[in-house]
Write a structure and sequence with these properties.
With 384 residues, the chain is an alpha/beta fold. The chain contains ten helices and 20 strands.
């Protein structure tokens, strides 16, 4: 919603709600609130007597900036709009606010969302014995790089922070049975995006067949693999979609710099600002034959309704399935997918809704959680 050009007054009021907790650092509070409420094309914020201009299409950057200033221990801002911010008085991060690049936009989101989830960020690469939720941010050849505590690296201009770092590493939403030795196990990753989940599973020892359909995401993916040569030897990147044996027409954003989050060949999630991208598509059964994938220890799917094209033959000889399901097209029903898994002797062992983990036998929504079908986002099915 935040990137849309024409919002209603009620929707703009909702945007005000998102910045109010952080507005104390702004010197022109009333002016900023009015510009949000009345849908101005540009937000002007005054901080330490410096005027910063942020386009309405980058509202999320505005929110992240104000949040970071509130979370920080110290910050300075020069007359040219160059921000230096520190969360521990030792590590300092520099962001050019006068012309926010995709890289700096991502850095702001990382610092904001990471801090919200108890991560901390440092710039000192010599630190040892750091906590799991410590992330190192460095600059090499004028490119900012983030390094996880386990040493996995990503170019900050080649990720989507909320998915790549926050979900996969900070919140650890893709965690799998810690008692299993994943060395040389086979993982099929459908929806690899910028390479976060393939690198995550490879770091556990698995061999990963990683399917990513979108050209821009696949470019990000390959760039991030180049930063992790040892892990990349365990990953087979495949620029294709899973679903049907045909060329698939994806609805993608017109923003060629950032790529598209939540792209699908089934439903249009991009409002009116979209274009089509043709992608090679395969049924999972076909892809397994083409790429020589026999037994699968883990099938991970995050592919925006492609999971509803799964068949009995697709799911032969698979031990575990971890998927995020999405329903936008009304012709799909979650119960149909669950019935397929149940018929193939899968049993559900865990579910989560917005980070709340639910553990119960077969997926029947417990009344004490007041869940509806649309609320449920992720679950893991394990073959007993």
């Amino acid at each position: 919603m935040w990137g849309r050009k024409n919002l209603t007054f009620k929707e703009n009021l909702g945007l005000v709600y998102f910045v109010l907790p952080f507005i104390s650092v702004v010197e022109n509070k009333i002016s900023l609130i009015c510009s949000i409420l009345f849908g101005k094309s540009e937000y002007k914020i005054k901080i330490k007597n410096v005027i910063i201009k942020i386009p309405r299409t980058k509202f999320n950057s505005l929110r992240s900036l104000l949040a970071c200033l509130n979370y920080s221990m110290s910050y300075s801002l020069d007359s040219l709009g160059n921000l230096e911010i520190s969360f521990d008085e030792n590590s300092k991060f520099r962001i050019t606010l006068s012309k926010l690049s995709f890289e700096d936009t991502n850095l702001l989101e990382l610092l904001h969302e990471g801090s919200r989830h108890c991560a901390n960020f440092v710039s000192d690469t010599t630190l040892s014995d750091i906590r799991k939720q410590t992330y190192t941010i460095i600059s090499e050849n004028n490119k900012k790089i983030i390094i996880t505590s386990s040493g996995i690296k990503f170019f900050i201009d080649s990720i989507h922070p909320g998915n790549t770092i926050i979900e996969t590493f900070v919140r650890d939403i893709h965690s799998i049975n810690s008692k299993i030795n994943w060395d040389n196990k086979i993982v099929v990753d459908v929806g690899a995006e910028c390479g976060d989940t393939p690198l995550y599973f490879a770091s556990m020892g698995a061999k990963v067949y990683a399917f990513e359909p979108l050209k821009k995401h696949f470019e990000f993916f390959k760039k991030n693999l180049s930063l992790n040569p040892a892990l990349s030897e365990k990953i087979i990147p495949i620029n294709a979609a899973i679903g049907k044996d045909e060329k698939l027409k994806f609805y993608v954003s017109n923003d060629d710099e950032t790529g598209t989050i939540s792209a699908s060949f089934v439903s249009n999630n991009q409002d009116k600002n979209f274009k089509h991208e043709l992608v090679d598509g395969y049924k999972l059964e076909t892809a397994r034959k083409k790429f020589g994938i026999n037994h699968i220890d883990l099938l991970k799917m995050d592919c925006k309704e492609c999971e509803f094209y799964l068949t009995d033959n697709d799911l032969k000889d698979i031990d575990r399935i971890k998927l995020e399901y999405t329903i936008q097209n009304k012709k799909f029903k979650l119960d149909d997918l669950l019935d397929l898994l149940k018929r193939l002797n899968f049993v559900e062992v865990a579910a989560s809704i917005d980070g709340i983990n639910l553990k119960h036998k077969w997926l029947r929504y417990p009344s004490e959680f007041n869940l509806t079908l649309e609320n449920l986002k992720k679950y893991e099915a394990v073959l007993l």
